[in-house]
Amino acid sequence: MPVLVDDRYQQGLIVARRDFTKDLWSIRIRPLDPFPFRAGQYLTLGIELEDRVLERPYSIVSAPDEPELELFIELIPGGALTPHLHRLGEGQSVWLRRRPKGLFLRQPPASGRVHLFCATVTGVAPFASFLRLLARRSPSEGGAVPKILLLQGASHADEFGYREEMEGLGRELPGFRYVPTISRPWDEPGWGGEVGRAEDVIRKYADDFGVAPGQGMAYLCGHPGMIAGGRALMRRRGLPDKEILEEQYWPEGKEPTGSDN
């Protein structure tokens, strides 16, 4: 092992890979040591390149009780890290910072309130983690299932890497509904679902689901444009900032090229 990697890191082994499109895929990583985290957190993943560890944060798809760490990754053309990650498959190793980070779901959805989850493509990851955890919770652990709407936007239907799983959870979890929406329906004449960008259809579903000040929370994750639009709409509905939580995957006003963030 290189001397550059210190005790802040541990090794992880890629044990599974699934490709959804030519530039969207998921991997499952088995960490060498235990990696406790909360639903909604992210890990820092790195690989060795030219005598250094190049690393980036990725939201965790797995529920905290799963033995492996699942990530949903988008290839960024010209990105510093994802072109190298894209070449990795089962049996290859990566580096993981030992501690997870992130406070996105620090106020976890609770019964008695209405919760709007809104994501673009890979932004579904922290929501999937929480929903998996919710589905695994036994009735003896108490509490009613929170009322949750997950609205996910993408350009095309094949970018919904977890659509089948989310639709299954919609049948399994009372009070949970999943709505995917595509912004380029002219490319998919067979699509029968919602159309438009996620931020364009938030109002309709927020109305239907009863998201209101003092009664609901909005969680926005992914593309900064969606987050800006969703935030503005929720504020117009009267939600205070404390009821609008955000996690954007790269800075507003910048394109995700070169940095993978």
Features:
six-stranded antiparallel sheet, six-stranded parallel sheet, Elongation Factor Tu (Ef-tu), domain 3, 261 residues, alpha/beta, globular, Rossmann fold, 20% helix, 12 strands, single chain, 2 domains, 5 helices
- The pLDDT mean sits at 90
> Whole-number radius of gyration?
18 Å
**CATH class wording of the largest domain:** Alpha Beta
Give the termini distance in whole angstroms: 27 Å
Spatial strand order of the main sheet: 4-3-6-1-2-5
Q: Are there runs of 5+ residues with pLDDT below 50, and where?
A: none
CATH topology of the largest domain: Rossmann fold
Q: Count the strands?
A: 12
Put simply, the count of helices is 5
User: What is the structural class?
Assistant: alpha/beta
Sheet with the most strands?
6 strands, antiparallel
In helices, the fraction of residues equals 10-25%
What is the CATH architecture descriptor of the largest domain?
3-Layer(aba) Sandwich
| Element-level helix/strand string | EEEEEHEEHEHEEHEHE
Shape: globular
Helix and strand layout, with pairings?
Elements: E1 9-21, E2 24-31, E3 42-49, E4 52-59, E5 69-74, H1 82-85, E6 93-97, E7 114-120, H2 125-136, E8 147-154, H3 163-172, E9 176-182, E10 194-195, H4 198-209, E11 216-222, H5 224-236, E12 244-248
Parallel strand pairs: 7-8, 7-11, 8-9, 9-10, 11-12
Antiparallel strand pairs: 1-2, 1-6, 2-5, 3-4, 3-6
Helix pairs in contact: 4-5
Characterization of the model:
The protein has 261 residues and is α/β, with parallel strands linked by helices. The chain has 2 domains: 89 residues, Beta Barrel (Elongation Factor Tu (Ef-tu), domain 3); 135 residues, 3-Layer(aba) Sandwich (Rossmann fold), CATH 3.40.50.80. It is built from 5 helices and 12 strands. The strands form 2 sheets. The protein has a 6-stranded antiparallel sheet. The longest helix is centred in the C-terminal third of the chain and has 13 residues. The relative contact order is 0.16. The model has no long low-confidence stretch (mean pLDDT 90).
